[in-house]
Amino acid sequence: MGNNVDAVLEGGKNHQLMKPSDFKFHYLIGKGGFGRVWKGELKRTKQVFAIKEMQKSRIVSKRSVGSVMNERKLLSIIKHPFIVNMEYAWQDINNLYLAMDYVPGGDLRYHLIKNERFTEKQTKFFVACIVTGLEYIHLNGIIHRDIKPENLVLDSRGYVKIADFGIAKRIGPWLERESSGTPGYMAPEVMCSKMHGFAADFFALGAVTFEFMTGYRPYWGRNRRELKDIMLSQQVQLKRKDIPEGWSYEAADFINKLLKRKPEERLGFNGPQEVKNHQWLRDYNWKDLFSKKIEAPFKPGRKDDNFDKTAQEDWLDDMDSKTFNTSLQDLFEGFAFDNKKNHGSDENTQLLS
């Protein structure tokens, strides 16, 4: 690394609290839009993390510097047992790194593909975990905007944590017009780039719950435009004849109310308590859930059997080798973070619990 880069990364707001050599990188467990995710450990403590490695050149080429820096900032001010928390952030000449909670149970997309569907008892538990996480981030003024099975991960006991805050926003009750998220889980108001708020996350929750029940998404299209047209022309609604064996009408009603096209008619528009008060969830033991005293009805595989090992060689080769432009290093100024050293500062204070 040249002296100029050393100065950029070590001086001022870019002072490095951690560096790659502080960690032992074991093996790959995932892939993201900007790079890869490793299972690794902090050498001096042996604590295990999921280490998100993001290539600066890709971030810049995709015009996503703001998104990445926004995720880093949000993760520095939130901490909760039902989200994937950040402990450290650092950078080298080519990459950014986030050390996150290691959640060994894999994501719910992986398990949904393996199992095709989930039972009502399993789904209700998953949903209760997600609602608990959403309640926390919504009370702190944050919309996640990308709730989907890939971003819902299981710990070793089968509890769900919400991951990936890459397009999350900290806002007031409403957000300026823009369209961000994953088609198939995006609320109609988001698909149409209209003003949207916290209720958009509850539409996504409805789509996820529908998929867990049926094995397929409520809306399908060959492309985003077709999906949008279908969504705007018809209101998906589960009828009694559509309810799989072993599922209750209350579960279907919960899904139908979350999938309402108009946000003001949607369950959750008036806040997360409205979702928790629905008859399907009304009697859930939220206190025991938060304390993790409930035995999860779905348990992930033991050890590291919950990740797609067939793709790991592709992930290893999927990074550019050229050095990132030194003149652009300032784009990532202030990325470094250490939860223990930053905790308590004005900018990095845990929000509502």
Automatic annotation (TrEMBL):
Which InterPro entries does the entry link to? AGC-kinase_C, Kinase-like_dom_sf, Prot_kinase_dom, Protein_kinase_ATP_BS, Ser/Thr_kinase_AS
Boundaries of every AGC-kinase C-terminal domain copy: 282-347
Describe the family membership recorded for this protein in Swiss-Prot or TrEMBL.
Belongs to the protein kinase superfamily.
Domain Protein kinase residues, every copy? 23-281
Which GO molecular-function terms appear in the entry? ATP binding; protein serine/threonine kinase activity
Q: Which organism is it from?
A: Blepharisma stoltei
- Entry's Gene3D superfamilies? Phosphorylase Kinase, domain 1, Transferase(Phosphotransferase) domain 1
- UniProt: ATP binding residues: K52
Q: Could you tell me the keywords of this UniProt record?
A: ATP-binding, Kinase, Nucleotide-binding, Serine/threonine-protein kinase, Transferase
User: Any idea what this protein is called?
Assistant: Protein kinase domain containing protein
